[in-house]
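Structure tokens please, single chain.
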Amino acid sequence: MKSQLLVVAILAILLAIVSATKVRYDNYKVFKIRTKSLEQQKWIENLAKESKNFNLWHSGKGEVHIMVSPQKFIQVQNYTQTFNLPLEVMVSNVQSLIDSEQISKATDDVNAFGWTRYYPLSAIEAFLDDILAKYPDVTSHIDIGTSYEGRKIRGIKISYKEGNPGIFIESNIHAREWITSATATWLINELLTSTDANVRKLAEDHDWYIVPVLNVDGFAYTHTTDRMWRKTRQPVEGSRCIGADPNRNYNSHWLESNGASSNPCDETYGGAYPFSESEVKALADYVASIKNRINIFLAFHSYSQVLLTPYGWTKEPPSNFDHLMAVAKAYSDAVLQLPYKTKYTYGATADVMYFASGAANDWAYSEQDIELSYTIEFRDTGRYGFILPPIQILPHCEDTLAGLLALVGKADELGYLKLKYA
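Here you go.
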């Protein structure tokens, strides 16, 4: 009995030590600020560059979402009052949302992988191992490469027969966007186990290449240390700041049009040079090696509920813009028909969101000739932001599947699923 009590005490101490190392966001709020000019928007964005008291969650047309420490509430409120800018509290206590995720972890069966909670990288890797063992005839392991900290970047291919058009999914490139890898793993399971006729056709008539977690170092860091971490974990020479924004690091109009930052401390830092981040370079090399087998490229992100087409670096539309919009509309319309009534908007990144250069979907479209390339920003529109409650995982996954069925169907109708190789 004494030995059992000692073990419990030691575990409690270790848990306390681990908890103490985590960054906390007690009483941090997320404000939605509606701006009247680009100058005002940039002023708010710049707050996030100057201090750890601020963190930019979203910046789009006339609207900024920014997380603010209790010490800086007055500064933000004074600015918005001075310029008569509408101010709304979207999240009243960020730490309470994070704590709710931990409660979900503690109460779930940790030995069973499912979609009622979020999982660390080790559990996702174990899930992939289990899938590969269960379905050896139709699945194969993809070795994408190795991260800066030495972690394997893993993917899975699902292929029921030769001669299928291909769909590639890149997920969790931004570390804090946990709903993306949850959705990717659910989709893998659904493509292999669903008995629905439409899903079986979706699964068996296409080759699927899915990378659940690309930014493995950053993702691991969000679980151990800082839930709100976004970037990679590679040090930047000459800077105290760590990491780059991997979705600004692709070699496609890198750092053009103010679509990324050259400041290592910014959330949108594009890196020291294109493909400076080993994770991005590894994925790019793999996609380039099979580009003639890929008809559709999808990058899973959160949040905002929007499908983003090329381009992010210019407002000039791509040559097949009408088709890109038609396919995006099909996704949006299908999701809206479900009982959850989730509304997705759609359009070119630079037009409906912001300028973003060096992004994955632009690179896939422009440099790899994958004519249907999208960034899909998942739930929600800011009520929970990056900390989407676990109870919403399954409803969101159902939304995503309905959207993908429609997206692929429309792509086929428009002739985009013809084989690109002999």
